[in-house]
UniProtKB/TrEMBL annotation:
Binds 1 Mg(2+) ion. Binds 2 Zn(2+) ions. SUPFAM superfamilies: Alkaline phosphatase-like. GO terms for cellular component: fungal-type vacuole membrane. Mg(2+) binds at D92, D191, T193, E335, H344. It is an enzyme of class 3 (hydrolase). InterPro entries: Alkaline_phosphatase, Alkaline_phosphatase_AS, Alkaline_phosphatase_core_sf. SMART domains: alkPPc. This is Alkaline phosphatase. The chain crosses the membrane at residues 48-67. The active site is at S140. Belongs to the alkaline phosphatase family.
């Protein structure tokens, strides 16, 4: 009986060849052999060899597949060098539209081709989701806590978790591991972003407590080696000419006497640092009473205030020099702080200059990395977007215009903030001036000279004369209208923000769309430092009544305090007015 088809071996069938229908027994002419014995030797050998070859080939494919999968699962990065540097940059409030706005502005003012891009564009890495633990729209405090601790928290939290417990930061862990550490900002050094790396309080409005912790009066002692920025008023005792503290604590004196800080408070002190060659650490440089002016204004006061790029270059060299003979490198956080403020007041002219300055600082860091003998990476992102910026504007009652006009921004040489402060000063100094004369003065000295607008409407001038304290928003609206730049809010938005990087070992882990906490966790993992151990130490040592600010913040009032401290235009603009009073930038500037 012949075997069934399912019994057949594919290559070696034992079934005898079928007899032709016209064959008869013994008929040699048909070539039919009734004997079912195996075929001649050579034929049988060929089929055997083919079978063995197929078996070996199949086995080889299986082995290769298993080896490939095992290799992918067990592949390790090249061994990391012991010494390394990490530079983390934060573009506070900069969303994707800010890049488009600034790129086109730069192309216009320098007559560049349409395919010219910013340094940031050339180092695009991914995007980040920004929500906080209690809102889809984060503030800078919760955003920076995600970066510093790698944890979500509520809006206004300064490196504390939703259960009001402190969380260890990457900067604190780096210092404990032997790294040098630094903070560089263009805002108040006690503002939310820098505060989250070196302090722990329940709400961001506790600037006085933050200042003390930043210089070392906290549960971990001193954790920062270098601080450059503004916010001098929070370090001086109440009652002195330059103070904004609510108590009479002299933080500068405490920093110098108890924690050995070297201190500088002006441009001359910054210049003495010689680009980082002459820095005695720990070094505290507070070069502005509150915020460093917007770059569009600061460039006219370069003899008073250092720029972000200057402070960045100085910090890099100072930290490089301080770690030359060390087995460990450094961790440096650099913030382009006032991109956010330009978004809050909806000032596109101020914003493009802030982004360009941040882009310049980014390029300086890349150049430093290229020349450094120590493994160094740069990671950069934003905590959130501010202003709901759009490179389009449809005027009420008008058809859409498929264009926006960078020329309008190029004609401005002052920020709306600066012009509003000049207006307020003029009104104080000329209280009896008629409205007609005031409008003429505003048009000539502020609108034409400051914004480059020669077609101001009477109702715009009337609004400025009637409400000079609202001048910041009126001036910003005037230039936004001429440039056809739109805004949806004076606060933050929930849009995803960009991630940038120099590249390097392990940085592919934050490619693509990431949660902001993923970035924070990457920072401490790359440095190989233990933030968990710092968290345990903080919880064991912290006097919550002192270091978290609970002595001045009753727990039942926390929600109200948090709601009232979330940043907005008035959070810093009104504080700026209050703190400055009749204090001017210098040479007639506020």
């Amino acid at each position: 009986m012949s075997p069934s088809p399912s019994d057949r071996t594919p290559l070696l069938s034992e079934e005898p060849r079928r007899r032709p229908s016209n064959a008869v027994d013994g008929d040699d002419e048909t070539g039919y052999d009734p004997d079912p014995s195996p075929p001649p030797g050579p034929f049988r050998l060929r089929e055997t060899l083919l079978f063995i070859w197929a078996l070996l080939a199949t086995a080889g494919v299986i082995v290769l597949a298993v080896w490939s999968q095992h290799s992918r699962q067990t592949r390790h990065e090249p061994s990391a060098p012991e010494k390394r540097n990490l530079i983390f940059m934060v573009s506070d409030g900069m969303g994707p539209a800010s890049l488009s706005l600034t790129r086109s502005f730069r192309q216009h003012i320098h007559d560049l081709p349409h395919n010219d891009t910013l340094t940031l564009d050339q180092n695009f890495w991914g995007t980040s989701r920004t929500r906080s633990s209690n809102s889809l729209v984060t503030d800078s405090a919760a955003g920076a806590t995600a970066f510093s601790c790698g944890k979500k928290s509520y809006n206004s939290a300064i490196s504390v978790t939703p259960d009001y417990e402190p969380c260890g930061t990457v900067l604190e862990a780096a210092k404990r591991a032997g790294y040098k550490t630094g903070l560089v900002v263009t805002t108040d050094i006690t503002d939310a972003t820098p505060a989250c790396f070196a302090s722990h309080v329940l709400t961001r409005s506790m600037n006085d407590d933050i200042a003390l912790q930043e210089v070392g009066d906290g549960p971990l002692g001193r954790v920062v080696d270098l601080m450059l920025g503004g916010g001098r008023c929070h370090f001086l005792p109440n009652g002195t000419d330059d103070s904004c503290r609510l108590d009479d604590t002299d933080v500068v004196s405490i920093a110098q006497s108890q924690f050995n800080w070297t201190y500088a408070s002006d441009r001359a002190g910054f210049d003495d640092l010689d680009g980082g060659e002459n820095v005695n650490m720990p070094f505290l440089g507070l070069f502005a009473h509150y915020n460093v002016p917007f770059e569009i204004d600061r460039r006219h006061m370069n003899h008073i205030y250092p720029s972000l790029t200057e402070m960045t270059r100085t910090a890099l060299r100072a930290l490089e020099k301080a770690t030359e003979d060390s087995d460990q490198g450094f961790f440096l956080m650099i913030e382009g702080s006032r991109i956010d403020h330009a978004g809050h007041i909806n000032d596109p002219a101020a914003q493009v200059h802030e982004v360009l300055e941040y882009d310049n600082a980014f390029e300086i860091v890349l150049e430093f990395i290229e020349k450094s003998d120590t493994e160094t990476i740069l990671v950069a992102t934003s905590d959130h977007e501010t202003g709901g910026l759009s490179t389009a504007l449809q005027e009420p009652g008008q058809w859409p215009v498929y264009d926006w006009f960078p020329k309008a921004l190029a004609q401005a040489n002052s920020s709306a903030e600066y012009l509003a402060l000049r207006l307020a000063k003029h009104v104080v100094e000329a209280p009896s001036e008629s409205k007609k004369d005031l409008k003429k003065w505003i048009n000539k000295n502020l609108v034409i000279a400051g914004l480059g607008i020669t077609d101001a409407l009477d109702e715009e001038l009337e609004a400025l004369a009637e409400a000079p304290l609202d001048g910041t928003y009126i001036f910003a609206a005037m230039i936004s209208l001429r440039a056809h730049v739109g805004w949806s809010t004076h606060g933050h938005s929930a849009v995803d923000v960009n991630i940038y990087s120099s590249g390097g070992r392990g940085v592919d882990k934050i490619r693509g769309n990431m949660e902001n906490t993923d970035i924070g966790n990457f920072l401490h993992e790359w440095l190989d430092v233990d933030v968990g151990a710092i968290t345990k130490e903080l919880k064991a040592k912290a006097d919550r009544a002192k270091h978290l600010g609970a002595d001045r913040l009753l727990k039942e009032d926390l929600a109200a305090q948090v709601a009232g401290s979330v940043e907005g235009p008035d959070h810093w603009m009104e504080q700026q007015r209050m703190l400055n009073g009749q204090r001017w930038y210098g040479n007639g500037e506020w």
